[in-house]
Amino acid sequence: MSPANILVADDDGAIRTVINQALSRAGYDVRLTGNAATLWRWVSQGEGDIVITDVVMPDENAFDLLPRIKKIRPNLPVIVMSAQNTFMTAIRASERGAYEYLPKPFDLKELIAIVGRALAEPKESAASRGDENEGDSLPLIGRSPAMQEIYRVLARLMQTDLTVMISGESGTGKELVARALHDYGKRRGGPFVAVNMAAIPRDLIESELFGHERGAFTGANARASGRFEQAEGGTLFLDEIGDMPMEAQTRLLRVLQQGEYCTVGGRTAIKTDVRIVAASNKDLRVLIQQGLFREDLFFRLNVVPLRLPPLRERIEDLPDLIRHFFVLAEKDGLPPKKLDALALERLKRHRWPGNVRELENLARRLAALYPQDVITAPVIDCELASPEATSGSNAQNINSLGGAVEMYMSSLFSGSPNGLPPPGLYQRVLREIEVPLLTAVLAATRGNQIRAADLLGLNRNTLRKKIRDLDIQVYRSGG
Fold it and tell me: Which PROSITE patterns does the protein's record reference (predicted)?
């Protein structure tokens, strides 16, 4: 039996050579090209058992070529490579009918394993899914290996109705992933309904999920639809599922088993057609051992487990994330901001207990409270100062203006080349103190400059001049 023939297309000769060597050592025949036209000619002539192609080719994008390949040879597995390691790249590869998506750089052993798996599978499993829909926005940010694996799993799930269990610490973006599953999946035409179990009183959870009839309990003056009814035909996201009481867990299990439910106080079974995506920041297996979560419900929900890494495990994504959050803040009317190199390094050293949500809050705070266009490391140090850092012998110094300035100066000197900051230090330090002082007073007086000048002990014209010279934004509000 002759070895399988692999068609490899990449305009980078070095990459073609490395792939050729790996595949040849594995016993495959390999044909190499640096353009899409040659690849298309080979495929249209019936050559090749598998295609491995980069997305960006000099003469045509592989995403434009893929539908033509799948049309004439629907059972030909196509493995897509790309250095554009974004969520949408993985989604587009899946939507175009790619067998697998590999972000560059990738492990050659993984490539060999994927090729072997594709050749071993029945040919009909590689048929095109034929969905031409594209998204224009980027719902998930990050190019780290951890996020690349998330993208690949999500891409495989988009055209399924499989129940997904998302685990991860608070602030890692579990609802964002659930929304991506909905917005780019087969149920995107239906509603997306999210419900947080931890935010609902325990005695109202069943009514919240399944609805209730008039008179079902005190205060039920009219029939109310539940979240299952509201999500019909779409996706129901059950966040913090570990906080669901046992009684509600039993009813949810029955819905998952039978595909129907009754409202609270109702007797007629209602058929349901929703995709369930659940999430938890708790270890449900521990809750099972403690008797707080049903094991049979866990296995019903945990069809496809998906763990979101904390930010500290994907810290290389931080520059992309902070830029993204600054852009969002600017769209909301806040001034544009950037970080200097030392500030970015300081952010990377932080542990981020609040994960991506903590970073987003920090970005908005920096955009709103600091007048300078470029945020420096001392500002980040001030923002990230933990209660532990300001406890004990340092607490008295930090709680005084002099102590805060002393900390600022120490950080400034230690973070400067050769231990010395650029000339003009006196005026810069005064400006660093003056701007937050005036900003805080103006905020407290709701932009009333007469009251602010009186509080500061300044002449009103002096205050106006400082506001103008320091380019301080004054936001007025009523009340």
Answer: RESPONSE_REGULATORY, SIGMA54_INTERACT_1, SIGMA54_INTERACT_2, SIGMA54_INTERACT_3, SIGMA54_INTERACT_4
Counting other chains too, the contacts that 444-449 makes at CB distance below 8 Å and 24 or more residues apart are: 446/476, 446/477, 446/478, 446/479, 447/474, 447/475, 447/476, 447/477, 448/476, 449/474
For the four alpha carbons of 224, 228, 234 and 236, in that order, the dihedral sign comes to positive
Average pLDDT, the chain: 84
Asked whether the beta carbons of 82 and 104 are under 8 A apart, the reply is: yes
Residue 75 to residues 33, 46, 129, 142, 335: CA-CA distances in angstroms?
21, 12, 11, 32, 52
Domains in the chain, CATH or no CATH each: 5-149 (3.40.50.2300), 160-309 (3.40.50.300), 312-469 (1.10.8.60)
pLDDT one-digit tens code per residue, 49-68:
999 999 989 998 988 999 89
Stated pTM of the model: 0.61
- Average pLDDT of the residues in 40-55: 92
* pLDDT score, position 29: 92
Q: Identify the pLDDT of residue 348.
A: 92
